[in-house]
Amino acid sequence: MNLLSLALNLAASGIPALPLRAGKVPFGNCRRCADNACGGRPNMKNAGPCACPGPCHAWAAATTDPDVIQSGVWRRAWMRASAVAYHPGGAWLTVVDLDNAEAIAWAREALPATRTVPTARGEHWLYLGPMQSANAVRPGVDIKSTMAYARWIGPGTGTMTALPDVVRALTVKEPTTVRPAAVTVPAPVGGGQCPHRTPTYLDRGIAMGEQRITEAREAVHATVYRTFLAVLSTHGRCGCLTEAHTARLFTAAQAKGETARHCADAWTNALNTLGLGHV
Known about the structure:
By secondary structure, the protein is an alpha+beta fold. Helices cover about 35% and strands about 15% of the residues. Strand 7 and strand 8 form a beta hairpin.
């Protein structure tokens, strides 16, 4: 099947398609659209009334209109194209782009199974539902959905899963901090006297943290970090926290899809935010 026919088939399935030139990059803007002088495509964020008939503006050029795809200027682009791309967000999809074996191993541990597409270096995991796109959310992992394009490699195999919170949380930013060499509970201050007087207060705080993480319906990664921050702000300075307490919080987080590494990083960042980190 030639590229034009493939693009028409995708469009007929509701998947907005566009041509890619050599190097897997979109065609550049025409003279009229150079430097966004036209105001951009109507479906671009903060866009103006561009009516350019060509495949300008990268992902925003993707379309399901067969008349556009096979118009004269697009046909000339297809003759020079090397691949077909699509706009995942426009097809109500999210692509987790795994670029190497380590990223694939992480995904198999941390993410729910879904439809997968083999790539030259890794895999695309496709989920049903759009989200914010972002590059390098983890080593070797990009998110391609809204305002982004992905190369069409094939339909893949497996049943597509609804976009999970654990994927949405990958784009949630935590404070940038200097990580200590190890994750440890800070030593007691104030002579080591716990001001809480009874372990019941601490146990109740840990239980509330577990509940907050367990009940999270979205942005799980951010919820875990905020919970760790709340626990440490109350109990992190007196030395009453033990490994058993932190293990309960980590277990709740991992039950929601977080990896042990994510938990350790979130705990470390919370320590450093409160000035409790050990260098």
